[in-house]
Amino acid sequence: MMSPKPSASASADGGGGASSSRSTPTARSTPLQVIHILGNFMRIWSVYSLYSYLSNSGDSIVGFIFSCLVPTSVIFLVLQKPWKGRPLPNSQVVPTVVNGGILALYFVLWGKGLLACGPLVALLAEYAGAVLGVLSAALYGRKVNIWKKIGGLAAMLVAYYLLSNGWSTRTHSPLYSFGSEPLEKATQTIGMKEMVVPITAGILSALRRVLARRVSLKNQLKRRLHAITIASATCFLFPFAMWDTILGSASDSIVKLQLPSWAYLSTVVFGMVLIFYVDNVAEEKLHLVFSSPRHLMVSTGCIIVLEILYKMDFSLFGFLVCSVILGFGIFEATSLERSKKSPLEAHELSNGVFHNQLPISELPS
């Protein structure tokens, strides 16, 4: 007996169902992508506000960051309540506390780099953590990709070298720049010597993310441990803030901070609290990690808008050239069999997250 042929309507419905199933993930991810873009825009806006405030007020960057970390740690502790539920073992708590020390050092170096190099360079230097992919390939990876990663590292160094020579500024860029009005303050060339501080901060930021992924295997556990990390970073930064307050040029810097100012509120809300949840959603739902060309593309668009709004010494074409070279370098430095692995897994492997990882039993949530 011959089976009946499927009707045209049935085949049409089947095709429509297949097409709708293919389009559904994109439709569902669109709101998350909008949230990711807006969250990063608000975070970058807080960086420009912080730079404008600190460059005009002369307050201590260490004291300011410490005063921001205090309410941030309270907010995370209240929201996540790491003391509730199953007790966390020392194998997770101890590395998390150490990670808090790395986070405190990152904040200090990042703040120093922000004041020395400006927000544009400080934001792009955060992507220097992609060099961990090169180190991972050299130590654990397959040798077939090592030269590709070294080429990506060379491209990143070229991008940072161009940035240090002022290619992103209208004053020193050899490329044409929009705008003919005189600048209020021309930007001096930075030099690679000054670039070491924000680049080191970017590498520490990537190292902190790698350690956080290795310690926490569940999303809920990651949030609990992040609360401990922020509290630990606040404790590590406390003596440095007190030392800077007592012996620094601004002896009453913490006391005289304008806490209700937009720079302070935006740094706490958007620069420390909200961005953690935004990046967490992007990583879990969109498979979009920080040190990736896609993330750099979002940051590039936000930086262009804010450079124009704040009327900075800015060269659009020079900045785009540096961003394209940096994105290409990140793409090559973090490449690892992208055709066989998801973007998130490939990036974590390129950062050495799963190399030499021992079997771990299920962790408490």
UniProtKB/TrEMBL annotation:
Disordered: where is this region?
1-27
Q: Where are the transmembrane segments?
A: 60-79, 91-109, 121-139, 146-163, 195-212, 224-242, 262-282, 294-310, 316-334
What top-level branch of life does the organism fall under?
Eukaryota
Whether Membrane counts among this entry's keywords is: yes
Which UniProt key words apply to this protein?
A: Membrane, Transmembrane, Transmembrane helix
Q: Which ranges are annotated Low complexity under compositional bias?
A: 1-12
Q: Name residues in a coiled coil.
A: none
The record's section on PANTHER family has: OS07G0283200 PROTEIN, ZINC TRANSPORTER
Q: Protein name, please?
A: EamA domain-containing protein
Organism expressing this protein natively: Setaria viridis
